[in-house]
Amino acid sequence: MDNIKVSDLLEFLDSIAPFRLQESYDNSGLLIGSEEAKISGVITALDMTEDVIDEAIEKQCNVVVAHHPIIFSGLKRITGKTYVERAVIKAIKNDINLIAIHTNLDNVLQSGVNERIAKRLGLTDLRILSPKEDKNTDIGSGIIGFLPEPVNKNELLRLIKTKLACTAIKYTHNNDDNYQKIAICGGSGSFLLDTAKKQKADCFITSDFKYHEFFDAENEIMICDIGHYETEQFTATLLQELIQEKFSTFAAHCTKAITNPVNYYF
Ligand SMILES: [Zn+2]
Question: What is the 3-state secondary structure (H, E, C) of the chain?
């Protein structure tokens, strides 16, 4: 199958994580470009920053598939004053097609953002943490599963730091020093804390907890906030692997750019 078009890629991505499953506030799908464009190559990334678009131009890839949509809440002018406007201008000027696969990829059990994190930690018996409906429990937010055997706090923290390649972990205490049932939500997951507690998770790995929200753990669950980029950094590789496995007529590269805007100073 030569001459793969952007529409073919969109159809494939929809078969993995249907775009209709995205949250109402989201903006997943083709953001810039044309469904009719023939694909010369793909760069996958977490964010569609200018660096990533530069890399696409350099590698002669005319498609960027990223998790976070760079156009999110609407654009009223495009004058290059913000990083969003500059990325948009660069993509259009260079005929780069931008595709976002965001909350729809968060909301699937298989081949989604959270399954990738869970597998890195070696969790089994994976289920959606908060299913959207009672009938279809394979769609919804977060994931929950079990470590092969219980570990203590230090073992768990070490496992998370190593397997999820994070620089720092913000965590709360759990009265019980036995951790086996682990809940996960890539990205901002504090809205799932109650669900994780109700499901008796020993630990909840996510990011973007606010100071006062950490108190809500009430020593019943260990919250591990490892950083937004850190939870979702494996999504770029996930997308690259899925796309490359399906299409052999063009190359799919995972970006070399580290798009995390946050640095740590110790
Ligand atoms: Zn995110």
Answer: CCCCEHHHHHHHHHHHCCHHHCCCCCCCEEEECCCCCECCCEEEECCCCHHHHHHHHHCCCCEEEECCCCCCCCCCCCCCCCHHHHHHHHHHHCCCEEEECCHHHHCECCCCHHHHHHHHHCCEEEEEEEECCCCCCCEEEEEEEEEEEEECHHHHHHHHHHHCCCCCCEECCCCCCCEEEEEEEEEECHHHHHHHHHCCCCEEEEECCCHHHHHCCCCCCEEEECCHHHHHCCHHHHHHHHHHHHCCCCCEEECCCCCCCCCCCC
